[in-house]
Design a protein that fits this description.
The protein is of the alpha+beta class. It is built from 8 helices and 7 strands. It has helices at 5-18, 31-42, 50-54, 102-113, 119-134, 148-151, 170-173, 175-185; strands at 58-60, 67-78, 84-94, 98-100, 116-117, 138-147, 162-169. The chain has a 5-stranded mixed β-sheet with strand order 5-2-3-6-7, sandwiched between helices. The protein has a two-stranded antiparallel sheet with strand order 1-4. A hairpin with a 5-residue loop joins strand 2 and strand 3. Helix 1 packs across helix 2 (31-42) and helix 4 (102-113) runs antiparallel to helix 5. Zinc ion binds at residues 78, 80-81, 83, 147, 149.
Length: 190
């Protein structure tokens, strides 16, 4: 289902009035249109099929070594305030005969991030998706992010970083595997 951008534009115009603005003044005339386009993009994860996204980017590879992709840039919107949270995502997995094309992991992160999210849920969705897609022996995902809803309002803690992790399979059952993952991405367990 596509987004009704005309409807969003109308709602943004009403929102501008409610917060005390004049939507007819020069700088704001095109704002509803811009906001609608931005929201369409920032929520495109709702309209992306993960199977199609991953399709064709899984390769057969006999390896028992851990695969790590670290520092994947991440931008999402918190579902409580619809304000951005942003940071980095680190993914590690133990293949079971199949590996991901590297760019696909980044796409997978984008897909799940482009929805209203909770950082905890986002972390779990990514790990589960990696686990299921390649039937991995184990997966670990860590997200470090700053939340504008905390930094700009409320407690105004500008420097706090939230760290969430999700470990599945061998990453959950084996402390040695988990430690290898943590040392490879250079982050201490939270
Ligand atoms: Zn929030």
């Amino acid at each position: 289902m596509d987004v009704n951008t005309a409807k969003i534009e109308t709602l943004v115009r009403e929102l501008l009035v409610e917060i005390g603005e004049d939507p007819t003044r020069e700088g704001l005339v095109k704002t509803p249109q811009r906001v609608a386009q931005a929201l369409k993009f920032l929520t495109s994860g709702y309209r992306t099929d993960p199977a199609r996204l991953i399709n064709g980017a899984i390769f057969t590879q006999e390896t028992n070594s851990m695969v790590i992709v670290k520092n994947i840039e991440l931008y999402s919107l918190c579902e409580h305030h619809m304000l951005p949270f942003f940071g980095r995502c680190h993914i590690g997995y133990l293949p079971n005969g199949r590996v991901f094309g590297v760019s696909k992991l980044a796409r997978l992160v984008d897909m799940h991030a482009r929805q209203l999210q909770l950082q905890e849920r986002l972390t779990e969705q990514i790990s589960q998706e990696v686990m299921d897609s390649i039937d991995a022996k184990g997966v670990g995902v860590i997200i470090e992010a700053k939340h504008l809803c905390m930094m700009m309002r409320g407690v105004e803690k500008q420097n706090s970083v939230m760290i969430t992790s999700s470990v599945l399979g061998d990453f959950r059952s084996s402390a040695a595997t988990r430690e290898e993952f943590m040392s490879l991405i250079g982050t201490r367990a939270a």
